[in-house]
Design goal:
Length: 260
Amino acid sequence: MSDGDEAQGLRRLEVSRHGVAAEDLVAVEAPVALVLNGISHAVMLATPCELEAFALGFALSEGLLASRAECYGIDVAEAADGRYEVRLEVAAAAEMRMKERRRALAGRTGCGLCGIESLAALDLAPAPLVDPRPVDPAAIARALAQLPERQLLNRRSGAHHAAAWAAPDGALAEVMEDVGRHNALDKLLGARLRAGADLRDGFVLMTSRASSELVLKTVRLGVPGLATISAPTSLAVDLARRCGAQLYGFCRGDAAVRYA
C-alpha cells in the first residue's frame, strides 16, 4: 500500500490471482462522522477523499443548511484507526434544524433515509422546481460518452460510483466518486456549490439506479434533471413528477428512458 493510493481512496493489497501472487487495488471504505457545532449528527461509510465537499453537500441536500452561507467553516480530522471526523461550524438556525431532525445513520453505505425516528420525519414533498431548464437526451448521451475516462478511481478499483455534473450541452464539468452513490452525489453538489456554480444550469449523471433519495437531494438544491445508467424506483418517479424534475433512466449509449 502506498500513501498516495490511500489518499486517493484506494488501498493496495497482496492477493492471489489464479493461484499466482499479485497485487490489487480495492476501494477504501471508512466511517466518516459528520459533526455540526460539536454535535455528532451522522456516521456514514464513505471513500475518505473530498470530505469537505461531501460534508457541505450532505448538509445542504439533507436540508440541515438553508444555504451555503450558514456554513462558516469545515475541518477534517483523521483518527489513527482509520476513522474520520468532519466538523462543520454552522449558524445557530442550522444547529436548531439539526436538533429537530436528529438521526443516526450508522452501518450502511450512503443510505439516505435509514435511522429517521418516525414516518412524520420523512420529507417527501419538497418545493417544486421553478421553470427548470429542459434536459436534452442528446446532451445526456454526450455526457455519458465522456464519463468512463473521468472515473479514475473506479477504473482502478471497480467499486466506486460516479456522480457527474454536465452542462446543458452535455460537456462534463466535474466528476466525484465514492463507494456510496449518495455520497458521490453529495460530494458533487458540495463541490459545485463551493465553486459558486449555479445548480439550475445543467444536470446530474450517475452510474447507479435512480432512488428517491437521489431525486430528493437534487430537487432540494434546484437541479433540473437527473440521469442514471440504471432504472429508477417508483417513489423516485413519483417525486420527480410531483416536483417538476426531469428524470431519465437506462442511459446507455444513445438510449435513455424519460420517466418524468
